[in-house]
Design brief:
- With about 950 residues, this protein is an alpha/beta fold.
- Among the domains are: about 1-130 and about 140-155, no CATH class; about 380-390 and about 405-490, no CATH class; about 905-944.
- The protein has ten helices and 62 strands.
- The strands form ten sheets. It has a 29-stranded mixed β-sheet, with no helix packed on it. The chain has a seven-stranded parallel β-sheet with strand order 34-37-39-41-43-45-47, with no helix packed on it.
- The radius of gyration is 37 Å and the shape is globular.
- The protein starts with 6 loop residues before the first strand and ends with a helix.
């Protein structure tokens, strides 16, 4: 009966012919949380409500309301024509329209066009941000729907201001505007919605709230969510929410909240209904303001600035707490656990703090079922702690400093345990081959623990497994046959980074959704999957054969495919239309050949495409124009040819990484590449590209303006970065760094890597002065071309530059003095050019080996052995007549000649201008010598 996107109605006919109606409104799961709201149970004697009609009806919707809906649709931009297609003038029964719910009298009671409706027309596997959504503003025609009780516009692209007339819809009980693009100030008129029970503003990051005093009018409100709204200027936020008598759930995550002053929350002891409060991702260093919220059962204070001990108020005031989350703070004193011992706590989360020492005595927590303390600094052995865990259902001790050996006896009392997470500790499991654990686990995470060398046989008894991670656990023996049958429920399986040398069966279990077998010694053909596979990582193995298994996958399910560093071969002409939801594809370092298939243009959700180091040939198919979400395109080290397409710059404007390194591309660098404002890595090296470097490269905004680095979107498979282990794998590319190729896989720091590599081509002409404006460049390589002219005078502006290579060109003139400002430079090669003059003096430049300046015969000064005469080299000056403006040696020769001529001319003018006057003018001559005689007599009288 449940319908995720709307309202469910149950009719009960009583003896007095009155209708009992139960409304259950289920808030659709968002990326932040999953929650369900039971809104109300109401008996109404005459007026039925919110009937979702269909088929034959014995009533007709009200014409004025039908016209209002048509007018509302007219103001929308609808990308997918299937959306709201039955909203048309020919369809008179508006109560049968998608997303419309009516009363038995034909009055529109609910407008439900949120994500639940939209997702029916889009692939289910794509991200919630990818589906086609409605755009537009809330038009005034909604004012003509006075009986509205529910409005759901969530997960669309509505924009503009929230109109104040919404405050006149006095019957409104459910209002959901989450994850749109509304802006401006939230109108205070919304405080007139006294019947409103559920209010959701989540994810409208441009909305402003100047005060929450208006909320006091929402006397029926029991659910409020304002995640992501800026409430930093609302000092009355706590007082406002605690004045609402019916309020039970409040979500104020990421609202930039500060603790209110004492006069804003006072010492009121009136009973409150508030039971769930989410204040995560704010700016609280203290939580004393919570002391009066004695009814709170669920409190989230994660991602704040709490430090020191766990606050005392949790044991003295908030004694009804059932769940407490203080993860991602700066708590450091584990003795604060004693402050929690008297509470009725069921769940405690303290991940990512700085807690040290030993774990708490679980006997002080008689009700505790869940404890997670991952990413802290706890140490010591776990023996005693595990013996106290007889009531535990979930235990997460990952990423601490625990060590020692755990044996069978240590797990004897964990009979209720369902989730065991010990990853990233120095723990070894030493259990017998025949051990049968006392628990049935759903989740096992033992990453980086010592489990091998044999495959853990005790897993055979775990029939409820959903999630298994035994990666990097020292397993070197083959996978036993029983492993493929241990659970028909297993969805996530990670056995990566072991030394397993084995051949997989032809088919893997159909339940597998996320599979990581990377970095082993697996061989043979790739297995087939009959499941709804979402993530597959078989990289760094020895698999061979084709990738035809893609043709057996369910259409649209695969999001992530990584097969790099294998022995795979054959053509890429395969079933790409079946994996059209793919976001990441990495086939680097295999033996694929042939042309890139035109069907790759079907990958319209692709964000990262890596095909480096194969034997692919031919031109780039124009169908890649459709891959407009690409952030990374790496086609290096193949045999691709033709021109660098202009559409790379016009159609793929979100590119952050573009690498065509080591192919056979020719012609020129198209100026259209200058449209790639987000570009951070441009590698066109080792091709046959000719012509000049475009001067418009200064349009690479991400390379020059601070704070504008492109945000590389994460492919989210889970909230916990350790859970799936893909945090370092989203984007992988190879770069030439300081003359050596490196694989760059840490996408978390991609924003710090800004480089241009145009080396080993046939480029000519001058280096554009505009390159010196790319202030964030870390590496610049223009070597092995035919570039002429001078090094840009302002190159010293690139103060973040760490690697600079301009060797093996025909550059001339002096090294700009501004290069002395390059304090971060750690690699420099200016060899094999026609540079001249003295090398500028700086600690940095003189620290390089002389080889960085070799084969520039006119250079002098340290670190070379060529001495300088004044500011000039003592070498003979060549007499070839070239234009000085091109920075040649002849230009220097002419400059020297005119320097000496000007000295001679100045001497003649100065000498004869003074002495000639004394010779020709007797009276001046007599006065001059008379002055000299007086000076002589004066000096002699003083010193002689």
């Amino acid at each position: 009966m449940l319908k995720l996107s709307g309202i469910i109605i149950l009719h009960f006919s009583s003896q007095d012919n009155k209708t009992m109606i139960m409304f259950i409104i289920l808030k659709y799961p968002s990326w932040l949380c999953y929650s369900a709201i039971v809104v109300w149970l109401l008996q109404m004697p005459n007026l039925g409500c919110c009937h979702k009609t269909g088929g034959t009806t014995n009533f007709t919707c009200v014409e004025t309301e039908r016209q209002a809906l048509l007018e509302f649709k007219q103001g929308l931009e609808i990308g997918n024509k299937s959306l709201l297609s039955d909203w048309n003038a020919e369809n008179m029964e508006c109560c049968t329209w998608e997303g419309i719910h009516c009363s038995k009298h034909g009055r529109v009671m609910a407008l439900d066009i949120g994500r639940g409706v939209i997702s029916k027309y889009t692939p289910t596997t794509t991200s919630m941000y990818n589906f086609e959504r409605l755009r537009g503003e809330i038009g005034p025609s909604l004012f003509d729907l006075p009986f509205l009780k529910s409005i759901d516009l969530s997960y669309n692209r509505f924009h503009g201001k929230i109109p104040s007339f919404v405050g006149s819809l006095k019957r409104l009980r459910y209002f959901n505007l989450s994850f749109n693009s509304f802006s401006g100030i939230v109108p205070h008129q919304l405080g007139n919605l006294s019947a409103l029970e559920s209010f959701d503003f989540d994810g409208n990051f441009n909305l402003e709230v100047d005060s929450l005093a208006w909320i006091s009018g929402l006397s029926s409100l029991n659910y409020l969510s304002m995640k992501g709204l800026n409430l930093s200027s609302t000092t009355d936020w706590l007082q406002s929410i605690t004045n609402l008598p019916s309020l039970t759930e409040v979500y104020l995550q990421y609202c930039m909240l500060h603790p209110p002053s004492a006069d804003k929350y006072g010492n009121s002891t009136k009973p409150l209904q508030l039971q769930k409060l989410d204040l995560s991702m704010n700016e609280f260093a203290s939580v004393t303001f919570l002391s009066n919220l004695v009814s709170i059962k669920h409190l989230d204070l994660s991602f704040n600035y709490l430090e020191g001990e766990i606050p005392e108020l949790f044991s003295t005031n908030l004694t009804n707490l059932l769940t407490l989350n203080m993860s991602e703070n700066m708590l450091s004193n584990s003795s604060g656990f004693l402050q929690l011992g008297s509470t009725s706590l069921h769940e405690l989360r303290l991940d990512s703090n700085k807690l040290t020492g030993s774990l708490p005595d679980l006997s002080k927590f008689p009700s505790l079922r869940v404890i997670t303390v991952a990413r802290n600094e706890f140490k010591d052995h776990l023996d005693r702690f595990l013996e106290q865990g007889s009531r535990l259902v979930k235990l997460d001790l990952s990423s601490n400093a625990f060590d020692g050996v755990l044996q069978e006896d240590n797990f004897e009392y964990l009979t209720k345990l369902q989730v065991l997470i010990l990853s990233f500790n120095s723990i070894s499991l030493n259990v017998s081959t025949w051990w049968i654990p006392p628990f049935q686990l759903a989740v096992v995470k033992l990453r980086n623990c010592k489990v091998g060398p044999g495959f853990p046989n005790w897993l055979r008894a775990q029939s409820n497994l959903i999630h298994l991670d035994i990666s990097n656990s020292g397993i070197s023996k083959v996978i036993p046959n029983w492993f493929w049958n241990i659970s028909t429920r297993l969805q996530y399986v990670n056995i990566s980074h072991n030394s397993i040398k084995d051949k997989l069966p032809n088919y893997l279990p159909p339940s597998y959704t996320i599979v990581d077998f990377s970095s082993n010694q697996l061989y043979g053909a790739l297995p087939s999957f009959s499941s709804e596979l979402a993530v597959l990582d078989f990289s760094h193995n020895k698999f061979s054969g084709s990738i035809s298994f893609l043709c057996s996958l369910k259409v649209g399910t695969l999001l992530y495919l990584d097969l790099h560093d294998n022995l795979l071969s054959g053509s890429l002409r395969t079933c790409w239309e079946r994996v059209d939801g793919l976001a990441l594809l990495n086939l680097n370092n295999n033996n694929f050949s042939g042309h890139l298939p035109y069907s790759m243009g079907k990958l319209r959700w692709i964000m990262s495409l890596s095909l480096r180091n194969n034997s692919l040939s031919g031109e780039l198919p124009s169908s890649l124009i459709n891959c407009q979400r690409l952030l990374l395109l790496d086609l290096g080290e193949n045999q691709l040819s033709g021109v660098v397409p202009t559409w790379l710059g016009t159609s793929l404007q979100d590119l952050v990484v573009l690498s065509l390194h080591a192919n056979m591309f020719g012609d020129i660098i198209p100026r259209s590449l200058c449209h790639l404002h987000s570009l951070q890595i441009l590698d066109l090296s080792f091709n046959n590209i000719s012509g000049m470097i475009p001067s418009c490269l200064n349009n690479f905004t991400a390379m020059k303006e601070m704070g504008t680095s492109a945000f590389v979107t994460h492919l989210v498979y889970g909230n916990d970065p350790d859970e799936y282990g893909y945090s370092e794998k989203y984007f992988t590319t190879w770069i030439a760094w300081k003359g050596v190729n490196h694989e760059y896989i840490n996408q978390n720091h991609l924003e710090l890597l800004i480089l241009i590599d145009l080396s080993n081509n046939k480029l000519s002409g001058p280096i554009p002065q505009e390159l010196a404006s790319l202030y964030k460049l870390i590496s610049l390589n223009l070597s092995r071309n035919s570039l002429t002219g001078i090094i840009p005078n302002d190159i010293g502006q690139l103060e973040m530059l760490e690697s600079l290579d301009m060797s093996k060109n025909m550059l001339s003139g002096e090294i700009p003095r501004s290069m002395a400002n390059l304090a971060s430079l750690s690699y420099l090669d200016l060899s094999s050019n026609n540079l001249s003059g003295k090398i500028p003096s700086s600690t940095q430049l003189q620290s390089f080996d002389a080889s960085a300046f070799n084969n520039n015969s006119m250079l002098c000064g340290p670190p070379t052995t060529n001495p300088c005469q004044g500011n000039r080299s003592v070498h003979n000056i060549p007499t070839n007549d070239r234009d000085r403006d091109n920075g040649t040696e002849a230009g220097i020769f002419h400059e020297d000649i005119w320097f000496y001529i000007s000295i001679g001319f100045g001497f003649l003018v100065g000498f004869w201008g003074f002495c000639g006057t004394l010779v020709l003018n007797a009276s001046w001559r007599q006065s001059y010598f008379h002055v000299l005689n007086n000076w002589k007599d004066s000096l002699c009288g003083r010193f002689c």
